Amino acid sequence: MTAEMDPSTDRAMSYVYAVGRAGTPLETALAGRQGLESAPLRTVRAGDLVALVSSVPSASYGSEGVQAQMEDLGRLEVLARTHHAVVEAAYEHATVLPMRLATVYLGDGRVREMLGEREPEFSALLARLEGHVELGVKVYADPREAVAVSSRSAEADTADRPGRAYLQRRRAQQQNHRATYRAAGEVAAGVSGRVAGIAKAQVTHRPQQGELAQAPGENIVNDAYLVHGTQADAFRGALAGLGDDVPGVRVEITGPWAPYSFATPPEAGGGVPR
Question: Which residues contact 227 (CB under 8 A, 6 or more apart)?
């Protein structure tokens, strides 16, 4: 996160959601839409770049205020959802670089300085991402499902022999879970080959755990792919059916999203949650 120190407790600060090119629909498309704290969105221009911003109170978005929000899961969720919603709305109208969560400056003047200082970097990233989206591929391993499938099969084969069915079910339950994880790893290894020539870049994220991992099973692969918008359907088609015939293994494709994993400039702000 980037939150500048503000000596005043009443001063409004400038929260930056994304950066795009001047002269694009971004400068007018989101006029009237609200951002954080129900404040209207606006653009700040410097040269050939514009930043999409809104005003936020320094008491909540200065260094201490932002830290407090990051430690409060309820407030953090509102912050993240609003930030992401603004970025997604912006990306519907123009290619933008999503800024990291809680990127805040003392005012529009500092935002202009930041744009000027980083113009070469931002312009290069915008050129690279023009027309592209992000698609996610998650692979899950669920040994319990694999055992359940095996048990159902065993019971069907031994319906007239209850004792044998019980023993086979017990064996299935005691099988080493490594078999399911090994199978999931093999499925995951096949993704890159299937999307070769479609995806332009790949980023490997940490597997989701805890509250972020709401799907059944354990998330063992959480990758992001940069794909031209016209190739999104081809990407999904290339992965269709992958893992469907492997008990206990599931593949999930998410998106398309604004390309957070490929667009967020290093050292521009705090990390964004996936």
Answer: 132, 133, 134, 135, 198, 199, 200, 235, 256
